[in-house]
Amino acid sequence: MSVLQKLDKSISDNAKREHWPGLIESYRSWLPVSNKTPVITLQEGNTPLIPVSSVEERIGRNVKVYVKYDGLNPTGSFKDRGMTMAISKAKEEGCEAVICASTGNTSASAAAYARRGGMRTFVLIPDGYVAQGKLAQALVYGAEVLAIKGNFDHALDIVREIASKYPVTLVNSVNPFRIQGQKTASFEIIDSLEEAPDWLCIPMGNAGNITAYWMGFKEYFEAKKSKKLPRMMGFQASGSAPLVLNTLVKEPNTIATAIRIGNPVNREKAISAQKESNGIFDSVSDEEIIEAYKMLGKEEGIFCEPASAASVAGLLKNKNQVPDESTIVCVLTGNGLKDPECAINNNDSIFNSGIEANIKTVAKAMSL
Ligand SMILES: *Cc1c(COP(=O)(O)O)cnc(C)c1O
User: Fold this and answer.
1) Lining residues, ligand 1, CB within 6 Å
2) Is the pTM of this model over 0.85?
3) In this predicted model, what pLDDT tens digit does every residue of 58-98 receive, in sequence order?
4) CA-CA distance, 139 to 194, in Å (whole number)?
5) What are phi and psi of 133, to 5 degrees?
6) Closest residue by CA, ligand 1 atom 9
7) DSSP line for 39-60
8) Ligand 1: which atom is nearest the Cα of residue 207?
């Protein structure tokens, strides 16, 4: 075979590489689905695990740090992992409408999957506290959006009651199928590292995701797919840190709107994950969150939401406790494009405007 023929062959082999069918088909035997479950998927999951040397350098000691970039899911957040399961099961049960309370990403994801499954979608959001991109998605996907004069916790109380009284299925993370779908992120991490990491750093809002990751790590460990379990390191924004402070927060406040939650529904499960794994809960200030957010963008080319950057901010805050030679995964829960306002207000880049359209002035503005 000539060199060119070889090259041709390797390209076509790559192109034929088995196509990823979404996480239900990929992890079917680990999930509560049967042949009767109609699989509603947008081929979510299989997100990249990217090494981040700028974070490694800040820690030193030969540590390996990766980010699990779940902002590359179909609607731009990890919520799709849970939603493919919750909506497929709702469809199986004959449900015709779903409802959720949301800080934004749940509503975007619920709308996309439920509409794909032919269901009505109601979303309750805190008026004025949902990032633009997320609201745009819910509207484009055809949700019926109800913005309430209250925060996420109020919205959740209302939808729980509505779902108990009317024929609509609740798809917040109290829905156990959400957690089942989300646990597949841990499977993917172990499948790719061929071992569990030493630390798993993750932002916490309602704490469904930390619950799901821990479930996934334990299941793979019990099936001998890993030899160890990670310590679960959960991080909250300091103005919205009920799990760190071990209390309710009546008026949660943070720039990281996705984790602006004062009364997490999965509180007990998150505390068990932390205790069983010898993990840590800690808070990070909005300044620390934005610093990590900016660093990921300008030093790594990774654009995540502020809430997601809390995982990296938390790791850096606790860097002195990181053991030598360890492997750490930080979960980047959502895509930075969700919140353009935050991006435009929080960067150190140069934006020169009003420049005359000729080579001389442009070159001058470039200080060449
Ligand atoms: C939902 C969400 C979180 C919080 O996840 P919980 O399961 O509620 O703890 C964090 N980051 C982003 C981007 C989210 O959308």
Assistant:
1) 77, 79, 105, 173, 203-209, 258-259, 305, 307-308, 333-334
2) yes
3) 999 999 999 999 999 999 999 999 999 999 999 999 999 99
4) 40
5) -60, -40
6) 207
7) ---S------EEE-HHHHHHH-
8) 9
